[in-house]
């Protein structure tokens, strides 16, 4: 993970994040100054950012919004104070409303981003300066330490070419916290087709089967926010297992980019999870990222112990073989 430390100094009124990466300074600089790359990590998992304005010049502004799995938007803006390419830039960072107007009563901070070379690549040092101890404590209470750590730990994916980062590595499962697990899989195909494979029932039936020998008996998807879905499977002849299914509701839809749903095992009193699917395309391949939020660590561990990762890999391999190849 890139982040090596997040500390705060009540006397200096600062919070400092340090991240070390296996990439040269110039590459790290581009990741922090290109809005399309920033969108991939500026915001913790589940709260991706969208930059609508990015005027990278002294006196210029940047505006962004982070969208939660429930569709709530958290807006922010930067004012660029200083730029020394490729070693430093400084911004005035603030919370805003949807029109970019600063929100009264919310802290404003000055942030410096410093880029230095290391023996293994480069280091980012991000120092946030606050006007008062109350402002520093307010930001920390809002989860800034945990959120910034999770956000900047996504840098590795951004700094490498997508195929170099993920091709041939299959389905990968990362435990991010007691409640959050991230699944990633590179799919060799364009994003629009991968999206259709997840949202069109006739295509879903062809690949979302888990281990060989199972049949998808029900696939109903109402692809609108608030719409329901229902999946069911049954074992084929000679396959050991009992029929089962999942039901849930769509919370957020951003066509071809993001689909957030709840998931509940049909006919049980097991708690629901929130599944946040996002797709990113580069060079004809699509990185599929599924962020799963569990109610607690015990539920997380119970689900992972079922062989979920292996079952998902079998399905994704089938998606490439049966859907994309055709």
TrEMBL record:
Pfam families registered for this protein in UniProt: AHSA1
InterPro entries associated with the record: ASHA1/2-like_C (IPR013538), START-like_dom_sf (IPR023393)
Span of domain Activator of Hsp90 ATPase homologue 1/2-like C-terminal: 22-159, 190-321
Superkingdom, natural source: Bacteria
SUPFAM superfamilies from the UniProt entry: Bet v1-like
Similarity annotation: Belongs to the AHA1 family.
Protein's UniProt name: Activator of Hsp90 ATPase homologue 1/2-like C-terminal domain-containing protein
